[in-house]
Design brief:
Subcellular location: Nucleus
Radius of gyration: 19 Å
InterPro entries: WRKY_dom, WRKY_dom_sf, WRKY_plant
Number of helices: 12
Keywords: DNA-binding, Nucleus, Transcription, Transcription regulation
Low-confidence stretches: 1-22, 29-169, 248-268, 279-334
Structural class: alpha+beta
GO molecular function: DNA-binding transcription factor activity; sequence-specific DNA binding
Strand order of the largest sheet: 1-4-8-7-6-5
Oligomer: single chain
Distance between the termini: 40 Å
Protein name: WRKY domain
Amino acid sequence: MSSEPKDLYNHDPFQYDRYGLGTTSFSFSSNTSSIDEHKSPLVVDPSSQTLHGLSPPYMSFTECLHGSVEYNTLATAFGLSPSSSEVFSSLEGDNKTLETTRGHVPIIGTTTEVPVSTNSSESSFSTEAGNEEYSSSSKKESETKGCEDGDENPNKKVNKQKKKVDKRQREPRFAFMTKSEVDHLEDGYRWRKYGQKAVKNSPFPRSYYRCTTQKCTVKKRVERSFQDPSTVITTYEGQHNHPVPVTLRGNATAMLSHPMLAPTPLAAPPPGFPPELLAHMMPPMNTQHVSGGTSSNSFAPQPMTHFQQQQQHLLNDHGLLQDLFPSLIFKQEP
DNA sequence: CGTGTTTGACCAGCGC
DNA sequence: GCGCTGGTCAAACACG
């Protein structure tokens, strides 16, 4: 952790791991139609302590995942299984570190020690299921529509804001936590910071970023856990509708950053999934140990797009991932 | 000059 | 209704 942030910033997330700084926790959070817009999917961090197995209440879950990132484990993690819910529901009482005033998203699963690097990576997944339709309860949107047709609103700000809001749709959100001294982790995409706000009960501000690619509405929030300042919580919202900018040092990050490289048979993270997370997810994802269990998994089976299939095919055929991450375990073939 | 950051202001939603 | 907070805007600014 004594490395220089600047240096780190210029490296891809995988290198964080190599440098021993990339302990990452993840939290998926697809919006549900029932989720209020203000129910931030932000990870409610059980804190790194939990993730590090220092907190007894969560040990069972961690234990269960520890050393065995079975696919069904992930399935459980993503599947809103009762056990998981129980585990993390307790977090709410214990720790409101990252709980927003408008709501929070419990972490419903964890996985640890994905063999990405020599360092153990510890991850936690969280999701709120479903995201098919945008709840009409979104006041912003409804209002926008209401004002859309006839407004020569003198207030330009309001006008533009409404326009933007009008475009806004229910986007899948997910978050992950990373042990890093760098706030804004390089994930392959180009981001433009459009805001920063002080976070209640936290000395660390929250930064708002937007993908700079035209037509891409993906946003992300970055904040630092005040309980564990070494932990950065990044929340992504939306899906990239474009490839990763090619300028990316030509490394694996660029490829893995591709929005379409995230799909998995069971628990597909939203497209636009950060490579950092993918680095952790890939192995289990490619593992075909899909336990039949969680068919009710609400996070699941996003049908692959044509492009996704192409990418998947490419990876499988040429073993690109294996080449890039020889340390990863791929069980794609029997 | 283009791109990205900073920062104060504004708006909307929620809880009391 | 009011205050608080999250989220966003946009002008000013910085930088290569």
